[in-house]
Amino acid sequence: MSLQQTLTVFELMDSAHVSGQDVVDLFARYPGVIARTNRADGPKGGTDFVRITVPGSKGKSSGGTAPTLGIIGRLGGIGARPTRIGLVSDADGAIAAVTCALKLADMQRKGDTLEGDVIITTHICPNAPTRPHDPVDFMDSPIDDVTMNDNEVVDGVDAILSIDTTKGNRIINHKGYAISPTVKEGYILRVSEDLVRIMEMTSGKPAVTFPVTTQDITPYGNGVHHLNSILQPSTATSVPVVGVAITAESVVPGCGTGASHEVDIALAAKFAVEVAKEFGRGTCQFFDADEYQLLLSLYGSLRHLQNRK
């Protein structure tokens, strides 16, 4: 993963006037990539959703059967203007996701096309609200979580990596990034051995994982405490979801500025790109399908945890 690509996206988004169209324009020189944006408005403002599809050589978009990976840049907003000036910590997820798309597009142009399609989604809002949260304030979103999932959790993907800044807590005390156990239809499954292997290969260090609670995989708005929104995509899909948390050793508010570390964002993006390579060719599994079926036979469905009530 080129740090320069991360910096390119970082600088693009560090603007009070950036829009989804600005992100789409990044991909104008990549004719094989499909990038589009749409506006969504809510009671607290609006945001531009972005969807970037990088077709694979054997992907479903061209009639193939290779599995499709979804990469979501999860966040409330990239900025909290006018109360904060500049990029907020919460922007890391969007920057990482778009960096993944830029890297995959550049690889494709140079002749390195993945087998499976990759669909990257996120949203661009430079003036999102904030909200109180323990132990530090969170970024809020101008639109509701249902709208967020409707635009970011797309049909046709076979697994999802959800990248989100996860620094406003005392649960993860590690600077860099960490991965969650796999979540599927209300079940918190074991951490994927393949994802651990890829994380250790790309970072050159032992894998770092973080705990997930039942509360974290239930929908926002139900009144219970959530670590953050990193696993909210799991409430709106039947495919396996893994959180990729960009982390810090200290407690950093999501609305804090000057708190993004480009090297950590690049590391998370590099991990996601390597997962995309292997997932498309069938050498990376997010969960053990046989064991999941055994859990269903023993304990039944937990899909009710995906519902708000």
Automatic annotation (TrEMBL):
Domain of life, source organism: Bacteria
Name recorded for this polypeptide: DUF1177 family protein
* Organism of derivation: Rahnella contaminans
The top of its lineage is: Bacteria, Pseudomonadati, Pseudomonadota, Gammaproteobacteria, Enterobacterales
